[in-house]
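Hallway conversation turned thread

IA: we were arguing at lunch whether anyone had actually written out CoA-transferase end to end. Turns out nobody had. So, for the record, here is the sequence (418 residues) and right after it the structure tokens. Reply here if something looks off.
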Amino acid sequence: MGASATASHAPAAAGALAGITVLDLSRVLAGPWATQLLADLGATVIKVERPGAGDDTRAWGPPWLADGEGQPTTDAAYFLCTNRNKQSVTVDFTRPEGQALVKQLAVRADVVVENFKVGGLAPYGLDYASLKALNPRLVYCSITGFGQDGPYALRAGYDFLIQGMGGLMSLTGRPDGEEGEGPQKVGVALTDILTGLYAANAIQAALLHRAATGEGQHIDVALLDVQVACLANQALNYLVSGAVPKRMGNAHPNIVPYQDFPTADGDMILAIGNDGQFARWCAVAGHPDWAHDPRFATNPARVRHRAELIPLMRQITVTRTTDAWIAALEAEAVPCGPINTLDRVFADPQVQHRGLKLDLPHAAGGRAPGVGNPLHLSATPVAYRQAPPVLGEHTDAVLTSLGYSPQDIAGLRAGGIV
């Protein structure tokens, strides 16, 4: 893919999920992240939104998308990040007529994704049991903060809250005793995003099961479960040793040196993962003897003697600029890199080459920027069919496909149903 992907880059090959229809009743981030991934892979995603308001994130600005005249629209950048390749249909399903509409869509759908509180859709007849009775093959994915059962099931869950409860913030931030100490959340809503990725994986697994058996099923995905599962090596460090991991700033609990270092004009990252890389760093730094020092020769030794090694390294790294270090270390295959701001990220030649900056025509006029999908499938590549939709952009077309006449649609609109 070229430097900046556009809608014209959509491949001729059908996506891997072509022919799959997803009814998206979710909003904000975790659910929409899952359904955008499915849409990028070729599924038809029909996003149901509230008439007149839509997904909450449409209003989470500034910044706002500009129209063709350069004027701000009513769609925030936040909404754009997670609703590409979808159709927007406005339906008020708190009304019986709206419920009937959504049920018609569910009968035709392969997948439903929702992130309401536990039991929140039952009063409208849009819960799994109700829709399964209409469509037994339906794969129904519920995303909540704490799951469909357990003592916290009825609580609302938010990414920030879960980062704290699920242990991530206890591992993130400067250690006690350093300036700026204290727990920190990650700079993006990472738990929501990871939950969306887990949900999309579960949905595709359930579709494979349905292809083999004809059976749909209910998927229960919880933010807390995902956050705990993604503690990865830190969780196992605790479960194996019984020692509670502590905040270490940018340092790694199991690998040394694997952190940020000051340079003559800023900072850089060293990600040294084995003893050979460390020996090559020592040679570039003018201290080949360190590679043979029993305190530093092996990674377990370096972990034990971290407090001695890191200050010695910092005295050396401040003697050259970031670019000078990176040039010298890359020549010796020592993993390293800068700490980029986002302007530098999107100016990076590798990021540009991989097509991670999008530019799609938008229904409001003008262009909608976006970030490309990181999946590269050789036979069924990701396609960017359309920018995130304006509110209700596809309502008439979708209702027409259900058999509604223009007069029927006008009546529903006049009654505030759509």
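OS: looked through it. Residues 1-12 have pLDDT under 50 and may be disordered.
IA: good, adding that to the notes. The longest strand covers residues 44-49.
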